[in-house]
Amino acid sequence: MKKKILAALLVTAIAIAGCSGGASTGGNATASQAPASSAPATTAATAEPATSEPATSAPATTDSAAPVELTVWESNQGPDEFIQQAGDAFTQLHPNITIKYVHVELGDSTTQIALDGPSGVGPDLFAAPHDQLGTLVSAGNILEVTTDKDAVSNQLLPGCLKAVTYNGKMWGYPVSTETYSLFYNKDLCPDPPKTWDDLITFAQNFNSANPGKYGFVMDVGNIYYTILFMSSNNNMLFGPDGTDAANTMMNTPSAVQGMQEFYKLKQIQPAAASDLATSTVDALFQSGQAALHITGPWNFKNFKDAGINFGVTTLPSLPGNNTPALSFSGTRCMFVSAYTNHPEEAAMFGEFLISSDMQKLRYDITGALPSVSIAVGGDYGDYANGMLQQMNYAYPMPSIPQMGKFWDAGNAASANIWNGDGSNIQSELDACNAAILAE
């Protein structure tokens, strides 16, 4: 209750602006929520009817006395608790507006809104990873931020603002940002390696001295993570701005060189890609059987609750590079459905979720990094600050429509390279490039 009252006091100015017509972009919560990427998740639930025909981007006039129920889609295990607590705080400010949470996983919402929205059974707002922005805009499934646009953009971290910008316009409200980094068990590896060559050497020695344990583990069939090996010499997916739809940059010499380094890891993880799935490698680190692991803030709480004495640091550098390997950054966004009957109220709640107080609440509940500039501390402070160091070497996942083909093609290439004999790297990356760019 104390938190809710504090939230009400701090966001009154936002609420007043909203009432006068105001509103305003990522493997797996407790902090185990899935990364903010569009990798497929579990089958989603169907919401109660909340929508009808597509709305315009201009909010309608609100009758402050009329009761309004906003349906919000979000993942469970943390994000659900945040939406429910934020909804209670919002209703204190706007007694006529109530928030109804419906469980739809992050990776399912883009597909489901295209089905449920036009049918009149979709949400007023829904969470989705920012890399789906191009698909959502092209399909006409979300509304542009048109009111309080400057106030909203001024609150956001630059990377988060970029993540919700498409074709020069702002879409949605970033509720958290994240990347992945190197987690290390301090009892097994007190001094984490700075290069991939050093990591391989450490893991070889550790594996020999500790039968049944693992020096290093990661999900090798998940392009969300393995893309880091293609980032040598600042090689980035779809170019530096993530908008070059004619060139994936996934089969360049730098990408090939990096995936050769990736394949070397097989000597310290001699298992098929299917045996190194996210759930498996997370469990190995969580049980104290692995010294090093690549994952993200969604695992802060899991590992802490398991009693693991761990730290978080930047990714090792690739050969020929003097800085940590580049990682994807994902932004978890709350979008206003184009089919909502309550666009103004939905936009007000979206803007409310990025207020400093609500961002702190979300961090406290999930451990997810905030999308606005606030201090992070508490139970996950040390881990979060380590992750923020990697954020200096992270770039937003592109959001152009071609990302729709990227995940399956990239996952297949990663697994095939890992399961191969090392001679198929160029051919697999060529096939991946062709699959993504196919009309």
Within CATH, the superfamily of the largest domain carries the name Periplasmic binding protein-like II
Q: How many independent structural domains?
A: 2
Which CATH-level-2 architecture of the largest domain?
A: 3-Layer(aba) Sandwich
Q: Provide mean pLDDT, rounded.
A: 87
How much helical structure, as a percent, in the residues?
25-40%
CATH fold topology of the largest domain: D-Maltodextrin-Binding Protein, domain 2
**CATH domain class name of the largest domain:** Alpha Beta
Structural class: alpha/beta
Specify Rg, calculated over alpha carbons: 22 Å
Uncertain regions: pLDDT < 50 for 5+ in a row? 1-33, 40-63
**Shape, principal axes of CA atoms:** globular
Note the run of SSEs as H and E: HHEHEHEHHHEEEEHEHHHEHEEHHHEHH
Q: What profile does the largest beta sheet have?
A: 6 strands, mixed
Tell me how many strands there are: 12
Describe the protein's architecture and organization:
- It is globular and about 70 Å long.
- Strand 1, helix 3 (79-93) and strand 2 (97-103) form a beta-alpha-beta unit.
- Residues 1-33 and 40-63 have low confidence and may be disordered.
- The chain is α/β, with parallel strands linked by helices and 439 residues long.
- The strands form 3 sheets. Strands 1, 2, 3, 6, 11 and 12 form a 6-stranded mixed sheet that branches. Strands 8-9-7-10 form a 4-stranded mixed sheet.
- It has helices at residues 2-10, 12-19, 79-93, 109-119, 133-138, 149-155, 158-163, 196-209, 223-226, 253-264, 278-286, 300-305, 343-353, 356-366, 381-391, 403-419, 425-437, and strands at residues 68-74, 97-103, 125-129, 165-166, 169-170, 173-178, 181-185, 214-217, 290-295, 310-313, 327-336, 394-396.
- Helix 1 packs antiparallel against helix 14 (356-366) and helix 2 packs antiparallel against helix 13.
